[in-house]
Design goal:
mainly alpha, two-stranded antiparallel sheet
């Protein structure tokens, strides 16, 4: 199974490195270009017309990398378990479903030549359908230990004592999916910012999946301290998904970094936010994801603060929200903002992984 993680990452990287420029040519030929906000930083005007909907590249690359890694591993090692798991398939399905909603939004923007795509109610309905389907199915498909892909208990490093029941779990899962999707969507305002931040988070989830597999309760008889084990249904397969995502996003970043040749659009941002929430739910790290994806949370909160302050006091806290545009208007170059925000995201990942390890070590 460890080979699958390596194969998935390398294949995802290769597919987006090679496939993204082909997608750029296709989108440019059809005239599917990005519209830019008139009230945004003036430097962004030059980006008008840059091909969008680039999320198609890493969505397809991730799915292909996952299944190709299974096929190659099974061919190389006949004794390897190359069967896709329900957890892996559900997380990939959540990514594809959210990506489809984003694609419809992007497509309507381009075809109808307007800055707004799907109507708010239609967009929300699409996200709700995908999110509810994921949440309901994630409570099915128990393994021989009785573990389903998701749990009705809240989790931080692992599940803790509060059981919220299936109905509240669906509501909680929907909140996570919508929050992370909107967080990545808001972050996707500068060349490479959301993509690079996502690479770091998916790298963290690759590590978490491997660690949970090594310390799985299913292997309790071989552990030095069975009380410190992880009760997760398919941790190593979640690591395969995360590795495929990391590789695919890294390859896409080659073309998405400044000056961007392509934007991910809502197709990509909704998919990345959705799959990030799915990984958190299925790996029992629901609250930890707020730290691991701290940049997305920070940028989302800047919008909440800006809107709340303006409605309550009539004054704005930031020159412009989301937060990255505030620093642009203060005179920071786009590349400077992106690199410094990547550093912030890297710190969040380090802190999140530190807490993950500390939580495990404390139980030993």
């Amino acid at each position: 199974m460890m080979k699958q993680i390596l194969f998935a990452g390398v294949i995802g990287l290769f597919l987006t490195l090679v496939g993204t420029p082909l997608l750029i040519k296709l989108l440019a030929r059809k005239g599917y270009g990005q519209y830019i906000r008139d009230d945004g930083p003036r430097e962004h005007a030059s980006k008008r017309g840059t091909p969008t909907m680039g999320g198609i590249a890493f969505i397809l690359a991730t799915i292909a990398a996952y299944f190709l890694a299974k096929v190659i591993t099974g061919y190389v090692d006949e004794n390897a378990d190359a069967t896709p798991t329900f957890s892996g398939l559900l997380v990939l399905g959540l990514m594809a479903g959210m990506g489809l909603v984003g694609f419809l939004d992007d497509y309507i923007k381009i075809v109808k030549r307007r800055s707004l795509g799907l109507r708010a109610k239609a967009k929300m309905a699409g996200q709700l359908i995908v999110g509810i389907a994921f949440a309901v199915l994630a409570l099915q498909f128990a393994d021989n230990r009785g573990n389903t892909p998701a749990s009705t208990k809240l989790s931080f490093i692992t599940d803790f004592g509060w059981t919220i029941g299936p109905v509240l779990f669906v509501v909680w899962a929907l909140f996570m999916i919508l929050a992370m999707s909107n967080g990545v969507n808001l972050t996707d305002g500068l060349d490479g910012l959301a993509t690079g931040a996502s690479v770091l988070v998916f790298g963290a989830y690759t590590f978490i999946g491997v660690w949970q597999y090594q310390e799985s309760c299913a292997n309790a008889q071989t552990l030095t301290n069975p009380n410190a084990c992880f009760e997760v249904r398919d941790p190593l397969d979640l690591a395969v998904v995360a590795s495929a995502l990391m590789g695919a996003c890294l390859g896409f970043l080659w073309w998405n970094t400044s000056p961007a040749k392509i934007f991910m659009g809502d197709t990509g941002s909704l998919a990345l936010g959705g799959v990030l929430a799915g990984l958190a739910i299925c790996s029992r790290t629901e609250l930890l994801v707020a730290i691991l994806g701290g940049l997305f949370v920070l940028i989302t909160m800047s919008v909440v603060i800006q809107v709340g302050s303006f409605r309550l006091t009539g004054k704005r806290v930031f020159r412009m929200a989301p937060l990255q545009h505030h620093f642009e208007l203060k005179g920071w170059s786009e590349v400077l903002v992106v690199v410094r925000f990547w550093i912030i995201q890297g710190i969040c990942v380090i802190v999140g992984l530190g807490l993950f390890y500390a939580g495990w070590a404390a139980d030993k």
